[in-house]
Amino acid sequence: MAARQRKLPSRFLSEIVDSFGCFPPDCHSKNTMKTKNLQCLLNWTAICFAVLTPRSASAQLDFSINAGDVVSNVDEQIWTGSFGSGLNGKTGNSENLDFNLNLDMQRRLDLRTTKFQANYFFAKNQIATTTDRFFSMLRDERDFVQNPQWSWFGQGTYENDEFKAFDYRLAMHTGLAYKVFEYDDRFLKLRFGGGASRQVGGVNDDWVGEIQFGGDWEKKFTDRTRAYAAVDYFPNASDFSDYRLNTSGGLEFVVDDALNLNFRIFFLNIYDSTPEPGNVRNDLDYGMAFVFGF
Fold this sequence. Notes:
The structure is a single chain. This protein is mainly beta. The chain is built from 2 helices and 14 strands.
């Protein structure tokens, strides 16, 4: 299907600020879709470092949700994560190029965990671009002082796809999370909450109330191999037959300890039970990438 030509709204940034107050800068310039999505990835990264990382790595007051209790954290607040890229190409009688970029970042404090991820997929052949898709998520969790197994979270996502019948999708949710278990070799956390999403520039350009069910899982098989998965289910608050389902996962192998280099096989699936006219319900991206940790 050919890419839909559209003029993206110039009011993008003001809408975001008015609605959420904390979404990324205007990624929708007059550049090509590929350049725009790469700019979004860089903008999101800059926001994480510039906004979420405190100016001083010394003392910061971390407020928890427990009757006004205040916890002082004097540890250094350092982001950890990984950046990966994969590339496939072919030239000759036919030409094909596809690549993926993915960024994962996380910061852990005594009672707070902030997580950011971004994925960009692009593919083209000698005729046209066939994939141009960007997805990003930012989640912040605050543990309860009396029972750290429970936490409150706030989550925002941004999606853009050149081949979708809307300009971009924004979503914001909040709720409670429960840590089922956390050991050195395995981890499982479940979450439940609510919020809203909006498909800007689509047939239905209104905010839709949603419920959220989700979870994160990780398992270390050896010191050099791990698997991970995440799922978020978003049914329409007034009609459960209308829902979105985001799933992701992968398998990662250590390649070089000194370089902090891993090899990853991964997938990202975005499902919409009621897509816009002209779109299919399912978008599945998968691939392989070399990943550098930091």
